Amino acid sequence: MCKNKDGSQRRGYQLEEFLQKLFGLFEVDVFKPFKLQGEQIDGSVKFDGNNYTLEARWHDVEMACNALYTFAYKIESNMLYPRGLFFSINGYSDEAVKRITHGKSPQLLLFDAIDFIAVLEERISLVKLLEEKIRYAQTRSNIYINANEILK
After folding, report:
1. Where are the domains of the chain?
2. In the chain, beta strands by DSSP E
3. What do you get for the CA distance between the two ends of the chain, in Å?
4. CATH of 2-151, one of 3.40.1350.10, 3.30.70.1560, 3.30.1330.60, 3.30.565.10
5. Three-class SS of residue 105?
């Protein structure tokens, strides 16, 4: 079990590095990981005048509720205009998305491997993907829509 955890953590750091490069390629201001009161922040970006805290996870399965709750709490506990971007290579369980949004107004957007593939295949730019995800969250209360659904 520890070996798997170490592998997930190593992949998570690699995903952080990938995100830094990807956002940089699209000229989105990106800031390196940092620590706050004993917790690791995977970085942040400034997009369209707003700052977003990043969380990068690369686990072998869909992201479960606990990781989303922890990140949502981290975002909500920020002082001014909290917003977050959660990146999970293997997506999210339906239950996790329902629980994080039911009766709440989470201030985060969810990304998965489908999003990365669409950007890398140049079917959508990262900037357009961010704009569309923000629009869907603000107008349809949908924080988890992937690039394939946006491009339909």
Report:
1. 2-151
2. 29-31, 34-36, 39-41, 44-47, 50-57, 84-88, 108-111
3. 40
4. 3.40.1350.10
5. coil
pLDDT at res. 2: 39
Of residues 53, 45, 17, 48, the one with CA closest to residue 29: 45
83 pLDDT more than 50? yes
- Torsion, CA 50, CA 53, CA 58, CA 63, rounded to 10: -90
Task: Tell me the whole-structure pTM to 2 decimals.
Answer: 0.83
Tell me the helices (H) and strands (E) count for the chain, helix number first.
Answer: 6, 7
Secondary structure string (H, E, C) spanning 58-84: CCCCCECHHHHHHHHHHHHCCCCCCCE
Beta-bridge partner residues of 30: 45
Place of tokens 């990106």: 30
Provide the pLDDT confidence category of residue 90 given band limits of 50, 70 and 90: confident
